Amino acid sequence: MRPYILAETNWKALKGAEFELAVLPWGATEAHNYHLPYATDVIEADYLAAESAKKAWEKGAKVIVLPTIPFGVNTGQSDIFLDINLNPSTQLAILSDVIEVLNRQGINKLLIFNSHGGNDFKSIVRELGLKYPDMFICVTNWFQSMDRSSYFDNPGDHADEMETSLLLYLKPELVLPNEEWGKGSEKKNKIAAFSEGWAWAERKWSQVSEDTGIGNPEFATKEKGENFFNAVTDKMGDLFLEISEADRQNLYE
Ligand SMILES: [Zn+2]
User: Both ends of the chain: CA-CA distance in Å?
Assistant: First the structure.
């Protein structure tokens, strides 16, 4: 029973406990190429947030990890079977309710630990920050925390070498054998600005990828997954500790 995981701890331990920082992992339930489980983003969020919190806790951080929200924004995947979409406005409502509890009970820092590319919390954080001036609300995308090119051969952004490696390390029993892995090739928008990144439109997922993956998982290994997991959780553990110890009123120098 880990004292920094809300789902595992109990009223006996929590009565009178004090925390500085709540971490809310946020995933998605969606197809991940042919071979990875629909809960891939949830599994990654669970394990990465828990291990990061462990590392921070052992250095004295007063951190509590809330249960992972299992659904994310999948508006671009509406025709992919059982991808469960949560609209951004629903995310605003959920966060608003969670923050109301934290704010009332004096846990004034919240880090949203995002595990899914379609979740975009910035505008929500702005809006709720205005509504709850005593709260420090922030967000991190763990998948952007490291330079992936030093860990993986093929770049990608969905069910790619990175995600396949992580799942081979965390939940190998849920990964299909590699003869089942799709290539994860992506069709680019004919209008160059969108692939160059200076204009944005949501990708119609079923039209850009045949197997729902983006990024070739071919060279994924458990060892790469383990190295990356350790690197991300070292870095995130430091971030949890820093936020936990930070003075909300005195953040700038
Ligand atoms: Zn994913």
Answer: 39
Buried/exposed 79-112: b ≥16 CB within 10 Å, e otherwise: eeeebebbebeebeeebeebbeebbeeebbbbbb
**What kind and span of H or E run contains 65?**
strand 63-65
CA of 159 to the centre of ligand 1 (A): 6
What predicted TM-score, i.e. pTM, was given to this entire model?
0.97
120, 16, 20: which is closest to 73 by C-alpha? 120
158 Cα: distance to centroid of ligand 1 (angstroms): 5
Question: Ligand 1 mean position to 12 CA, how many Å?
Answer: 36
Contacts of 40 (CB under 8 A, 6+ apart): 32, 159, 163, 167
Q: What is the distance in A from the centroid of ligand 1 to the CA of 96?
A: 25
Banded pLDDT at 40 (limits 50, 70, 90): very high
CA distance 107 to 91: 20
Average pLDDT over residues 134-160: 96
CA of 205 to the centre of ligand 1 (A): 13
Angle at which helix 88-105 crosses helix 122-131, to 10 degrees, equals: 40
SS3 235: helix
- Measured distance CA(135)–CA(128) in Å, rounded: 9
Q: Which long-range contacts (CB under 8 A, 24 or more apart) does 172-178 make?
A: 172/222, 174/36, 174/37, 174/43, 175/35, 175/36, 175/37, 176/34, 176/35, 176/36, 177/35, 178/35, 178/218
Phi, psi of 72 (to 5 degrees): -130, -175
Q: Fill in the DSSP letter of residue 217.
A: -
